[in-house]
Request: fold
Amino acid sequence: MTVSRADTVAILGAGVMGEALLSGWLRGGRDAVTVLISDRSPERLANLKDKYAVRALPAAEAAAQAATLVLAVKPQDMRALVQEISGAVGDSTLVVSLAAGITTAFLEAQLPEGTSVARVMPNTPALVDQGMSAVSPGAHCDADQLATATGLLQACGRVVALPEHHLDAVTAISGSGPAYIFYVVEAMIEAGVLLGMPRATSTELVVQTLYGAATMLKETGEHPTVLREQVSSPGGTTMAALRELDDHKVRAAFLTAIEAAARRSAQLAAGE
Ligand SMILES: NC(=O)C1=CN([C@@H]2O[C@H](COP(=O)(O)OP(=O)(O)OC[C@H]3O[C@@H](n4cnc5c(N)ncnc54)[C@H](O)[C@@H]3O)[C@@H](O)[C@H]2O)C=CC1
Ligand SMILES: O=C(O)[C@@H]1CCC=N1
Reply:
């Protein structure tokens, strides 16, 4: 079967996020022949070709054969990748970057004049079709191209369009967010073990509690304060615990931590 360039998407850098998108597209019914992958690691490529039956090519060749390029390397590897593919980027190519910190202006300056670029910040729950992504258009990305970028992410979860000046904050909240939640989950599991419970039991209790609480937030649409108050009996156990969290400034620590993540995203833009 011959596949047109217009229908082809290339994932350049097929690591955690590249695979999350690839797997989401295939689960959503996209034909594997319309996806090209490229990665520096031959082992990684062999593994993905086996698992998903997609074609692998060197980055510049993949870039020449696809109308949409998803750049999914680490921010520190972005300059080298863009230099590698720049000559293969055509007039109608849409470049979609997933990298933390890397601005559309940075990419536009490295790519041929007038290249359409969209910046996206996804997160790992895309692996289970529950991703949260934000997308921002660059200077030459028109509405149709923004819709194309949005569609690629919608296959794996929800997408919001936002002005690019919010993207460092998005990176700090939803991009890195799953890690904060996993960190809290780890701490709660440890607490169960400290109280004498088998680890497997503690894990089951915590994971289902997280799932239930997330489902309540989503399905009731109630403010989290209301839902927290429903759990907090006067003079009860929950207030005893929350008082300790307040004493240990856990809320303030979250604010400071998320500010640090946003600051780090901005530093990555400067190549630090
Ligand atoms: N992991 C996460 O939770 C999220 C990551 N991101 C962003 O996604 C991007 C990718 O992150 P991960 O998937 O976590 O990284 P990763 O390290 O799992 O994947 C990056 C892949 O790029 C490959 N690579 C590096 N240079 C290359 C080149 N020149 N040509 C071809 N392949 C090359 C590496 O071999 C690696 O497999 C990063 O820029 C990150 O900021 C965004 C949101 C969430
Ligand atoms: O930690 C990072 O830099 C990437 C970006 C958002 C999540 N992971």
Q: What stands out?
A: Residues 199-220 form the longest helix (22 residues). The chain has a mean pLDDT of 97. The radius of gyration is 21 Å. The pocket of NAI (ligand 1) is lined by residues 12-18, 38-41, 44, 59, 72-75, 77, 80-81, 84, 98-100, 121-124, 175 (CB under 6 Å).
